[in-house]
Amino acid sequence: MAMKLKNLPQSQPNQSNQPNQRLSSRLEIRLSDSDYNQIKARASLVNLSMSDFMRRAALRRTMPRPLAAFDLKAYQVLCKIDAQLRIAGNNLNQIAKACNSAVALGEPVVVNTGLLESVQKLIRENQATIKAIVANLAKSTVR
């Protein structure tokens, strides 16, 4: 395994702990096919790029725990639910704004009950899904 350093900054500890720091320096290493495949598999297991995996390993930072297949599926479902709830929240904000504007102008408050009912239904459906995911995650054997 041969290594070549390029443009590495001198004595700047913990610099890459900052979240949005630009990664401008490169480190090139040569690996056997076997080593490369092992590193790639390990990085994939913890859902990291090879670059991030190697940075964390070299700097002895913590690695995320491997995701079980269920954990990954649960994460994807939660992302979809999050998007749906954001839409529902936007709808509720629009309804609240319309109601507040009507009250401020002394006009009668007109509410689209169909929209309110659909938002309420969406929240109920997602609550049940979230509870099921949380229960299954609690039973998960991967820690």
Helix segment tally: 4
Gyration radius, rounded: 25 Å
Helix percentage range: 55-70%
Shape: elongated
Mean pLDDT: 77
The major β-sheet equals: 2 strands, antiparallel
- The parts where pLDDT drops under 50 for at least 5 residues are 1-16
Residues in β-strands, percent: 5-15%
End-to-end CA span: 33 Å
Structure overview:
The chain has a two-stranded antiparallel ribbon. The protein has 143 residues and is mostly helical. 59% of the residues lie in helices and 6% in strands. The chain is built from four helices and two strands.
Describe the SSE topology.
Elements: E1 3-6, E2 26-29, H1 33-45, H2 50-58, H3 69-104, H4 113-139
Task: Please describe the structure with a list of short key phrases separated by commas or semicolons.
mainly alpha; two-stranded antiparallel sheet; 4 helices; disordered N terminus
Short description, anyone?
With 143 residues, the protein is mainly alpha-helical.
